[in-house]
């Protein structure tokens, strides 16, 4: 099919995420290599999104491609009920070693990994005799996925699922912690503690540690994560950390945000970059203590079983991705990305309509005082050869780790151009020819 035929069929049959049924895509991707997407009309664009934060090593990576090819020669998929296979066992062993958690339950998406985590917490509490503990505590501004259990712990007012309020289970939402990595949390904890004291039916606390992703790219203090962990421990609740967006060094050289916060979760959710954007894969990890509690519940087993859990192709490429992470030079990779984002996005702070510029690890954010004009912002970035996906009032980037300094500078320039375009300013690069 040529590009016109693809677009015509897309318009007739395809429904894209978070979009009207008749939404038109910005282009047809025909190839991808390194950090660039190639469109069917010949345009190329740096993928500043890492394909929704998953393709951390870029595209057509030779060692990752080879891992998939080698596994394809053996077995592409086999049911995990009653059977096992080497890639799943190797990956589970690696993840357990990286996290300090003992048990790994595989699934096929981040949302499902959260569903499994919530179910684990509920079954654990039943198994230790606390059948009254059926609710969850979380913080405002969070996002944990689009399935029903996950939606119930997403922000019920400002989040994407507010229309389902009243249908979803009702949980307790603490105020959002103050913004900023080093902010004082004393006023926040003083406001939260009496809310917690009034609760007696909580199974677990769940949050995204340090960075709330799709809920607003909100960076908050590690001290707040530690305080939540302490509260959970002292009250007999579990701590669930959702690191679907933050895991595998997205926030810097630590593998996970919980290591930066110096806490130990009881249950951990990972996904997205776990399989480097090649195949859908996620996992929910827990301690042996949690597993033993679940074994004591009336079912005696964890009541979940995704058809494609532990897909061998996905597990094989995930192992190769973890190997690849170890090959990076930390200072030359994460230090360089963080430094360039911080330095080159700072001028955006002076633009009319910009209320904040913030960075952490390999993430850069420009926040506006209004909803982003998505079409204007996206096209302004594409004019400079960069693909971004703004949402709400945010223009942001989460580029692949192998991105070079020159390409990252282009990403920053495109983000600033997108901010200008979204606020009605003439692009600073108007008239410039972009290769």
Q: What percent of the residues sit in helical stretches (DSSP H or I)?
A: 25-40%
The profile of the biggest β sheet is: 7 strands, mixed
Helical/strand content category: alpha/beta
The separation of the N and C termini measures: 27 Å
Number of strands: 16
Give a verbal description of the structure.
The protein has 435 residues and is α/β, with parallel strands linked by helices. The chain folds into two domains: 3-60 and 329-422, Aspartate Aminotransferase, domain 1 (Alpha-Beta Complex), CATH 3.90.1150; 74-325, Type I PLP-dependent aspartate aminotransferase-like (Major domain) (Aspartate Aminotransferase, domain 2). The protein is 37% helix and 16% strand. It has 14 helices and 16 strands. The longest helix has 18 residues, at 110-127. Mean pLDDT is 95; it is low at 430-435.
Structure keywords:
435 residues, alpha/beta, Aspartate Aminotransferase, domain 1, Aspartate Aminotransferase, domain 2, 2 domains, 7-stranded mixed β-sheet, 4-stranded mixed β-sheet, 37% helix, 16% strand, disordered C terminus
């Amino acid at each position: 099919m040529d590009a016109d035929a693809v677009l015509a069929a897309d318009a007739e049959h395809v429904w894209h995420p978070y979009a009207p049924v008749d939404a038109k895509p910005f282009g047809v991707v025909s190839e991808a290599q390194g950090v660039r997407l190639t469109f069917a009309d010949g345009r190329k664009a740096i993928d500043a999104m890492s394909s929704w934060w998953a393709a951390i090593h870029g595209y057509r990576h030779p060692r990752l491609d080879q891992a998939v090819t080698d596994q394809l020669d053996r077995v592409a998929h086999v049911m995990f009920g009653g059977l096992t296979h080497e890639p799943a066992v190797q990956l589970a062993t690696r993840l357990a070693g990286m996290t300090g958690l003992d048990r790994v339950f595989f699934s096929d998406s981040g949302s499902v990994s959260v569903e499994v985590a919530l179910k684990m917490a509920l079954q654990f509490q039943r198994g230790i005799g606390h059948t009254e503990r059926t609710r969850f505590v979380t913080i405002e501004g969070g996002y944990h996925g689009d399935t029903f259990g996950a939606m119930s712990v997403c922000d019920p007012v400002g989040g994407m699922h507010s229309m389902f309020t009243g249908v979803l289970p009702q949980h307790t939402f603490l105020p959002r912690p103050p913004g900023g990595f080093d902010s004082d949390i004393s006023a926040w904890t003083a406001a939260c503690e009496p809310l917690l004291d009034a609760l007696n039916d909580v199974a677990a606390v769940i949050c995204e540690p340090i960075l709330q992703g799709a809920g607003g790219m909100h960076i908050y203090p590690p001290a707040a994560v530690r305080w939540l962990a302490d509260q959970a421990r002292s009250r007999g609740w579990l701590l669930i950390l959702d690191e679907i967006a933050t895991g595998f060094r997205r926030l810097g050289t630590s593998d996970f945000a919980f290591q930066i916060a110096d806490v130990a979760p009881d249950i951990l959710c990972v996904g997205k970059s776990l399989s480097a954007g090649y195949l859908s894969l996620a996992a929910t990890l827990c301690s042996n203590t949690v597993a033993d509690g679940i074994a004591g519940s009336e079912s005696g087993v964890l009541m979940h079983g995704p058809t494609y859990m532990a897909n061998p192709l996905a597990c094989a490429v995930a192992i190769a991705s973890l190997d690849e992470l170890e090959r990076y030079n930390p200072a030359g990779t994460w230090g360089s990305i963080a430094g360039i984002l911080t330095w080159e996005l700072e001028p955006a702070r002076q633009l009319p309509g910009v209320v904040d510029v913030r960075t952490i690890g390999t993430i850069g954010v420009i926040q506006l005082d209004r909803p982003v004009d998505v079409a204007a912002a996206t096209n302004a970035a594409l004019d400079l050869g960069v693909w971004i996906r703004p949402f709400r009032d945010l223009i942001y980037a989460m580029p692949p780790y192998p991105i070079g300094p020159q390409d990252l500078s282009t990403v920053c320039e495109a983000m600033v151009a997108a901010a200008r375009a979204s606020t009605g300013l003439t692009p600073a690069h108007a008239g410039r020819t972009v290769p």
